[in-house]
């Protein structure tokens, strides 16, 4: 981490952030570094220790280094050296090695538990900036400000409202309702979020290494299994302290309707694994044991259910409001389905996209001279222009690869064989070129030099930060000149004094 200069001059912009998840916390940390005032409003009364793995690739590592988080992130993570795709009978479909990414980008792919990663981000945000139990039920915006109303009757006013409150975002629902009343909401965004798949996730307590192969290895064992039952798959990562992050994914359209309805109506983010079909519990794991072993070893309160679909909304912004993370796009981090994950270790799932949204938006807000509606419009337009194509491209690739990686027909099998076995390494590497280069950094912090053989995508320098550096350099030079002059004056005085004595 390079030496950090004095903080930039305080901005006259105030940002209201809905949601204390990865997206909201990352943005908050960046705004703090940029000297921009903010407050976070989280609907939950307490943060629950739920979720499974957070696999974090090279795209965000320069930013983590800039923020001084990389060393601590490494201390709670394992390196993902490779990943293996299996059939249910444990026949290997494909082994993917990721060590080349270290040479290409300078960074490893790391995996930790989502609660631990969330705790790391939370530790960098002042407690008085996070307001818990603040469910946003309405907001108004005009040419001068935006004002939110919470369920407890409290009201807050700022210059920009950022909806970082998840796939079922309250901010998005309110914004879309207002835009529909104005007749400006695209028809595609009027469709409600419908579940395309369900995921059950958890993290075990420390396990006995004698019962699981490779549990104590320095690198993470990252394996995925495509089940014989259509639409069913499961995977896991081994993480520090002999624990395993696991998940089961199932296509909603392939489920028994009665079971699907039961899961859909269950309390969001809480799941009782006794509801799972008995035969699922006895599916084998490549590291030995069965899925049931992972269920039984995981604290019940930490097991969660996610009912979502792949979805990128067209509308991310209007007036003084902008959506980021899952509120704007939900590209499933169902790693079994993603070409990028298996071919280059990108792991650009929910957490990664949320972080990338945060740094791009923070850079643009930092550059604003004033929070006028004109400046906000320009910043949000540029944010959408950079992030929307990237997320859309990822969604399309995910959907196109679904049948190739998980399909059951002979045609699916043939396509999978060609893609995973026969495609020359050269063409795979060429297809990765953009992904490898895209490693955005905060433009208001000292930059991290490109590492590896593939340079970072060039970013447009910040005019404000460049001016700040020049002013700091000039001030440092002036202070040095004063010090030198004072030293010269003292020396001359001493010479004169010696002459008079003689």
Automatic annotation (TrEMBL):
Residues 13-183 form the FAD-binding domain. Keywords: FAD, Flavoprotein, Oxidoreductase. This is FAD-binding domain-containing protein. Residues 449-468 are annotated as: Disordered. It comes from the Eukaryota. Belongs to the paxM FAD-dependent monooxygenase family. Pfam families: FAD_binding_3. One of its GO terms (molecular function) is FAD binding. Gene3D superfamilies: FAD/NAD(P)-binding domain (3.50.50.60).
């Amino acid at each position: 981490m390079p030496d950090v200069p004095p903080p930039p001059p305080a901005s006259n912009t105030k940002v209201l952030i809905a949601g204390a998840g990865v997206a909201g916390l990352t943005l908050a940390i960046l705004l703090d570094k940029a000297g921009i005032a903010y407050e976070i409003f989280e609907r939950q009364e307490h943060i629950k220790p739920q979720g499974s793995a957070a696999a974090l690739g090279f795209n965000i590592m320069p930013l983590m280094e800039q923020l001084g988080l990389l060393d601590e992130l490494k201390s709670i993570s394992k390196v993902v050296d490779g990943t293996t795709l299996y059939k249910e009978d444990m026949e290997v479909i494909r082994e993917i090695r990721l060590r080349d990414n270290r040479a290409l980008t300078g960074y490893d792919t790391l995996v930790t538990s989502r609660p631990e990663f969330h705790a790391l981000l939370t530790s960098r945000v002042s407690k008085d900036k996070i307001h818990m139990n603040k469910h946003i039920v309405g907001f108004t915006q005009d040419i001068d400000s935006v004002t939110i109303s919470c369920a407890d009757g409290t009201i807050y006013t700022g210059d920009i409202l950022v909806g970082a409150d998840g796939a079922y975002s309250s901010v998005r629902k309110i914004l879309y309702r207002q835009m529909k009343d104005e007749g400006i909401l695209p028809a595609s965004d009027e469709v409600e979020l419908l579940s395309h798949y369900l995921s059950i996730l958890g993290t075990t307590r420390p396990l006995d290494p004698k019962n699981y192969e490779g549990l104590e290895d320095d690198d993470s064992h990252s394996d995925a299994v495509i089940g014989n039952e259509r639409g069913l798959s499961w995977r896991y990562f081994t993480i520090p302290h002999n624990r395993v992050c696991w998940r089961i994914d199932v296509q909603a359209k392939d489920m028994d309707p009665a079971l699907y309805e039961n899961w859909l109506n269950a309390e969001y983010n809480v799941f009782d694994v006794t509801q799972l079909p008995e035969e699922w519990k006895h599916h084998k794991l490549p590291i030995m044991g069965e899925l049931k072993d992972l269920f039984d070893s995981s604290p019940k309160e930490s097991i969660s259910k996610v009912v979502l679909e792949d979805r990128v909304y067209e509308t991310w912004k209007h007036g003084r409001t902008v959506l980021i993370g899952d509120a704007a796009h939900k590209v499933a981090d169902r790693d079994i389905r993603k070409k990028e994950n298996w071919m280059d270790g990108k792991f650009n799932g929910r957490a990664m996209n949320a972080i990338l949204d945060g740094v791009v938006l923070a850079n643009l807000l930092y550059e604003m001279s004033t929070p006028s509606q004109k400046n906000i419009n320009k910043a949000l337009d540029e944010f959408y222009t950079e992030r929307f194509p990237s997320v859309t491209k990822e969604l399309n690739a995910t959907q196109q690869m679904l049948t190739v990686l998980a399909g059951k027909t002979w045609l699916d099998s043939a396509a999978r064989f060609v893609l995973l076995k026969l495609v020359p390494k050269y063409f795979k590497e060429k297809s990765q070129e953009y992904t490898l280069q895209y490693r955005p950094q905060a433009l208001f912090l000292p930059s991290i030099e490109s590492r590896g053989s593939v340079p970072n995508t060039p970013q447009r320098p910040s005019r404000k930060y460049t001016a700040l550096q020049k002013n700091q350099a000039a001030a440092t030079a002036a202070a040095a000149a004063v010090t030198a002059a004072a030293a010269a004056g003292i020396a001359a005085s001493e010479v004169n004094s010696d002459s008079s004595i003689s």
